[in-house]
Amino acid sequence: MTTAPAEDPTMAEITAAVSLGHTGDTAAARTRLLELWRRIGPVGDPFHRCVLAHYAADLHDDPAEALVWDVRALDAAEVLTDDRVQRHHDALRIAAFLPSLHLNLADGFRRLGSFTAAAEHVSAARRHEHTLGDDGYGTMIRRAVDEVAEAIDRRSTGKRASAPGPAAR
User: Fold this and answer.
1) Could you report the per-residue pLDDT of 96-133, keeping only the tens digit for each?
2) Alpha helices of the chain — where are they, by DSSP H?
3) How far apart are CA 110 and CA 115, in angstroms?
4) CA-closest candidate to residue 110, choices 118, 99, 102, 122
5) Confidence grade of residue 82 (pLDDT, cut at 50, 70, 90)
6) DSSP one-letter code for 44
7) How far apart are alpha carbons 96 and 144 in whole angstroms?
């Protein structure tokens, strides 16, 4: 049986900031997430750090800035436990975060022209794809991993049309 997410004021604040970004106010969303990051701190709750950093990366047009947040998200995930994520929602497993986190790193490194590092993260994402469900989310992540791998092969550094983040201006 799956339970509803536990009440977590920090997660509520992260979600509210992310919602701002989804409505197009990326500057306000970045500001709020950065304020939360400062409050949580670099050694605060790894679940909060992982989720916040994962979403903060999507709010940056500059691939180097996004990559900093993607690294933070993976660093937090590496010390995160299933026990901690299940306090948020009992159906979550940290292993299921890894394909997306490695995908984001692969795409960031690719956009910066670091194709070897990008390919290493594509391989890592593929090693963890078995943790994805056979649902829309799993399909989306698998497709994006394939897109990044193809872009690496073409030595393309352009933003993928399907990539999350602020719309191109």
Assistant:
1) 899 999 999 999 999 999 999 999 999 999 999 999 99
2) 9-22, 26-40, 46-57, 63-79, 82-88, 98-111, 115-127, 136-153
3) 5
4) 118
5) confident
6) S
7) 15
